[in-house]
Specification:
Blueprint (H helix, E strand, L loop, with lengths): L5 E2 L1 H14 L5 E7 L5 E7 L7 E5 L2 E5 L11 E7 L2 E7 L5 E2 L5 E3 L1
Parallel strand pairs: 1-6, 2-5
Antiparallel strand pairs: 2-3, 3-9, 4-5, 6-7, 8-9
Length: 108
Protein backbone atom coordinates (compact mmCIF):
# COMPACT_ATOMS: atom_id res chain seq x y z
CA UNK A 1 0.00 0.00 0.00
CA UNK A 2 1.42 3.37 -0.98
CA UNK A 3 0.99 6.32 1.30
CA UNK A 4 2.11 9.92 1.01
CA UNK A 5 5.19 10.90 2.99
CA UNK A 6 4.78 11.48 6.71
CA UNK A 7 6.34 14.36 8.64
CA UNK A 8 7.42 13.84 12.25
CA UNK A 9 6.37 16.14 15.07
CA UNK A 10 10.06 17.00 15.54
CA UNK A 11 10.31 18.25 11.93
CA UNK A 12 7.13 20.33 12.26
CA UNK A 13 8.42 21.78 15.56
CA UNK A 14 11.73 22.79 13.95
CA UNK A 15 9.87 24.47 11.08
CA UNK A 16 7.86 26.46 13.64
CA UNK A 17 11.13 27.48 15.36
CA UNK A 18 12.61 28.62 12.04
CA UNK A 19 9.48 30.67 11.32
CA UNK A 20 9.70 32.30 14.76
CA UNK A 21 13.40 33.12 14.30
CA UNK A 22 13.11 34.49 10.77
CA UNK A 23 9.61 35.93 10.85
CA UNK A 24 8.91 34.01 7.64
CA UNK A 25 6.77 30.86 7.69
CA UNK A 26 7.78 29.47 4.29
CA UNK A 27 7.06 25.78 3.86
CA UNK A 28 9.82 23.19 3.73
CA UNK A 29 10.02 21.81 0.19
CA UNK A 30 11.14 18.19 -0.08
CA UNK A 31 11.82 17.10 -3.63
CA UNK A 32 13.83 14.61 -5.66
CA UNK A 33 16.25 15.59 -8.42
CA UNK A 34 18.32 13.50 -10.80
CA UNK A 35 22.00 13.41 -9.87
CA UNK A 36 24.11 12.75 -6.84
CA UNK A 37 26.45 9.81 -6.44
CA UNK A 38 23.61 7.25 -6.35
CA UNK A 39 21.34 8.51 -9.16
CA UNK A 40 18.86 10.74 -7.30
CA UNK A 41 19.29 13.39 -4.65
CA UNK A 42 16.99 15.11 -2.21
CA UNK A 43 16.25 18.80 -2.63
CA UNK A 44 15.31 20.17 0.80
CA UNK A 45 14.79 23.92 1.14
CA UNK A 46 12.39 26.61 2.28
CA UNK A 47 10.21 27.57 -0.66
CA UNK A 48 6.78 28.90 -1.59
CA UNK A 49 4.18 26.24 -2.44
CA UNK A 50 3.02 25.67 -6.01
CA UNK A 51 -0.57 24.93 -7.02
CA UNK A 52 0.05 21.21 -7.66
CA UNK A 53 2.06 20.51 -4.49
CA UNK A 54 0.99 18.06 -1.81
CA UNK A 55 0.80 20.11 1.39
CA UNK A 56 1.36 18.44 4.77
CA UNK A 57 0.52 20.77 7.65
CA UNK A 58 0.48 20.80 11.43
CA UNK A 59 -0.11 23.84 13.66
CA UNK A 60 0.65 26.21 10.77
CA UNK A 61 3.98 24.60 9.81
CA UNK A 62 3.96 23.18 6.28
CA UNK A 63 5.93 20.70 4.20
CA UNK A 64 5.30 20.61 0.45
CA UNK A 65 6.14 17.92 -2.11
CA UNK A 66 5.84 18.48 -5.86
CA UNK A 67 3.86 16.04 -7.99
CA UNK A 68 6.97 14.74 -9.84
CA UNK A 69 8.79 13.89 -6.58
CA UNK A 70 5.78 12.35 -4.85
CA UNK A 71 6.13 8.81 -6.34
CA UNK A 72 9.75 8.66 -5.11
CA UNK A 73 8.68 9.69 -1.60
CA UNK A 74 5.72 7.33 -1.07
CA UNK A 75 5.78 5.95 2.50
CA UNK A 76 8.85 8.07 3.37
CA UNK A 77 9.33 9.82 6.71
CA UNK A 78 10.59 13.41 6.82
CA UNK A 79 12.33 14.14 10.11
CA UNK A 80 14.69 16.61 11.77
CA UNK A 81 17.82 15.35 13.45
CA UNK A 82 20.47 16.94 15.63
CA UNK A 83 23.84 15.19 15.88
CA UNK A 84 27.40 16.16 16.73
CA UNK A 85 28.09 16.85 13.06
CA UNK A 86 25.11 19.19 12.73
CA UNK A 87 21.36 19.50 12.52
CA UNK A 88 19.31 18.88 9.38
CA UNK A 89 16.09 17.65 7.88
CA UNK A 90 16.39 14.04 6.72
CA UNK A 91 14.32 11.65 4.62
CA UNK A 92 13.92 8.02 5.64
CA UNK A 93 12.89 6.51 2.33
CA UNK A 94 11.79 2.85 2.19
CA UNK A 95 11.85 3.04 -1.63
CA UNK A 96 15.62 3.61 -1.77
CA UNK A 97 17.57 0.46 -2.61
CA UNK A 98 20.94 2.15 -1.96
CA UNK A 99 22.15 5.48 -0.64
CA UNK A 100 25.38 7.37 -0.19
CA UNK A 101 27.09 7.84 3.17
CA UNK A 102 25.78 11.38 3.68
CA UNK A 103 22.17 10.35 3.07
CA UNK A 104 21.38 12.98 0.43
CA UNK A 105 21.74 10.72 -2.60
CA UNK A 106 19.91 7.45 -3.30
CA UNK A 107 18.87 4.97 -5.98
CA UNK A 108 15.64 3.09 -6.58
Amino acid sequence: MTLPPRVTDRAFARLAEIADLTGDAKPLRVGVLGGGCSGFQYDIRLDDPASDDLVLEKNGAKVVVDSVSLPFLQNAVIDFTEELIGARFVVENPNATASCGCGTSFSI
